[in-house]
Amino acid sequence: MTQPVILIANGDLRLSANQVCWPAQQAVEEAVMAAVRRFGREIKRGHPVDPVKKHGFIDSQKYGMKVFREIPPDAPLMVVEAVWQYSHHILHGLYSHRGPILTVANWSGQWPGLVGLLNLNGSLTKAGVKYSTLWSENFTDDYFLTRLEKWLNGQPVEHDTSHARPLGNIRLPDRAERIAEEFAQQLLRDKAIMGVFDEGCMGMYNAIIPDELLHKVGVFKERLSQSTLYAEMLRVPDEEAWQVRRWLEAKGMKFKTGPNHETDLTDEQILGQCKMYIAALRIADEFGCDVIGIQYQQGLKDLAPASDLVEGLLNNVDRPPVRHPQEGRILYEGEALPHFNEVDECAGLDALITYRLWRRLGFDPETTLHDVRYGEHYSGNGIDDFVWVFEISGAVPPNHLEGGYAGAVSERQPPMYFPAGGGTIKGVSKPGEIVWSRIYIENNELHADIGRAKAVKLPPEETERRWQITTPQWPIMHAVLYGITRDQMMAKHKANHIQVAYAPDAEAAKLALATKAATFRNLGIKVNICGTEHGLPL
Fold it and tell me: Residue 445 and which of 214, 398, 403, 511 are 20 to 30 A apart at CA?
């Protein structure tokens, strides 16, 4: 490669987010350009900084197409990210680009650049686009520079992914095989409905499962509209919404409120969220949904407070009762209604299978997705390991938190992403054994990576530090993955999200992992067992 390297920066659709995050992006671009130039190569931006918008991001699919018309199709291309990005803004150009592609992110929790990178990588994998990927804290370390030099010399970037091993035809424990076979046969026979309140949230191409792949595992989409959800919210009386809030407060949940709608969580916003919770359950019941996902972050964000409080409640078995408006029966009584945040259908399929399997095994069935947000090595408190920061925007069920509802506080979502406000379910995930997984699409087939981990307890001051360098309004899980390094995880994981569920102890977690892996396999999903401590003869 002798041509100049072209650098592009993909961003958010929301102007406020792009403006706030632009200084961090600028700093990262300068460091990446310096790294490229130290190898004697020329590098330049593929699009200008907009003086009116006050940022230099590609902020729409329309603008992305304009940018790619000016990029030489054979040029070495770097997509550099320090922020959350909407993959569909640039996916069209990456589809047809003939030159080598390198995705790069800074190792920082400040803005979700790592999350954006993983989403873009998952989207490119689904699309069948060849790419290399890198990440770094300062872009001067050997890991980054040695691989960057190879890419600049026309070689692919290689990472160690030996932690992920195909399940293949390995026989699993008899109990796991039996339960998985019964479960898969029942799902394929009885089928299930996935309620989707508008697809394609935030450009997450990787989060859309083509219908023909979903049908093969016995799940069918009910395409619902967020306008219907909003209309149903308007029909919910204030008193019914207040009953939900009073139920939560009686459980010990706290709401951090204030008087300013633009910056505080207000009583009116909470009331709207309680109405959305009721409306979502009633619509799901009407259409017979077994799992649902609300997009929210486009469209509904301009009309209603955030859906995150709603999502966390739906994912919890013990939650405020909601009755059918005419029949009076309690909807989904004694059950969670699994919800997949940001309409990530891969997470939705995983949540449906996990919830039902954990029920069958007699374990607490609450499950949620998290962002793979950040991580650092931590020593102390009996821990000497790399501890990941898993965070998601409020959708965590209270049963996952230390203290349950009493350990949860609802805080206002950040205004730059959530102009209409609304509260989260903030708390610290309780220590314990977990099974993690991710369903993704590669070569037009469903795949799944699955492994074991533990949620650990860090000192309050360390938890607070990690909150402050990420998003302090969101629930947090301190996770240690068994037998997987930071760089292995980043190299192999094909999504911005990771699904987690607790098991009672280590032996129960091994059984749960084996049963879930066997279920995936019986449904035709290709499985990788990742890391160690899984108890399987790989």
Answer: 511
Cα radius of gyration (the chain) = 23
Tell me the CA distances in angstroms from 382 to 284, 378, 458, one per residue in order: 45, 10, 9
Q: In this structure, is residue 161 part of a structural domain?
A: no
- Check: CB of residue 523 under 8 Å from CB of residue 439: no
Distances in Å between the Cα of 210 and the Cα atoms of 261, 338, 468 are 39, 20, 38
What's the average model confidence in pLDDT over 270-274?
98
Query: Residues with Cβ < 8 Å from 327, sequence gap 6 or more?
Result: none
Which domain CATH number covers 84? 3.40.50.10940
CB under 8 Å to 336, separation ≥6 — which residues? 314, 315, 316, 317, 319, 355, 365, 366, 397
Asked if 180 contacts 525 with a C-beta cutoff of 8 angstroms, the reply is no
Whether 283 and 380 share a structural domain: yes
User: Would you state the torsion angle of the CA atoms of residues 459, 482, 344, 270, taken in this order, to the nearest 10 degrees?
Assistant: -20
Strand order in the sheet with 132-136: 43-45, 5-8, 77-81, 101-106, 132-136
Q: Is 45 exposed, middle or buried (0-12, 13-18, 19+ CB in 10 A)?
A: middle
pLDDT tens track for 354-377: 999 999 999 999 999 999 999 999
Has residue 502 been placed in a domain? yes
CB atoms within 10 A of CB 2: 7
Q: What pLDDT score does 247 carry? A: 98
Question: Cα 247 vs. chain centroid, distance in angstroms?
Answer: 29
CATH of the domain at 351: 3.20.14.10
For the four alpha carbons of 348, 353, 356 and 357, in that order, the dihedral sign comes to negative
* 202/14 Cα distance (integer angstroms): 10
**CA 476 – CA 470 distance, rounded (Å):** 10
Alpha-carbon distance of 206 to 88, in angstroms, equals: 10
Q: Is 538 contained in some domain?
A: no
pLDDT at position 171 is 85
Burial group, residue 525, by CB count within 10 angstroms (0-12, 13-18, 19+): buried
- And the tokens for 356? 């039902």
**What would the two tokens of residue 63 be?**
């603008």
Q: Which long-range contacts (CB under 8 A, 24 or more apart) does 63-67 make?
A: 63/89, 64/10, 64/89, 64/90, 64/92, 64/93, 65/92, 65/93, 67/8, 67/93
Other beta carbons within 10 angstroms of residue 185's beta carbon come to 13
Confirm whether 167 is domain-assigned: no
Distance, CA of 409 to CA of 402 (rounded, Å): 12
Alpha carbon of residue 473 to chain centroid: 16
Read off the pLDDT of each residue in 297-316 and give the average, rounded to a whole number: 94
User: Can you read off the two tokens belonging to residue 457?
Assistant: 């307890």
| CA–CA distance, 223 with 192 (Å, rounded to integer) | 14
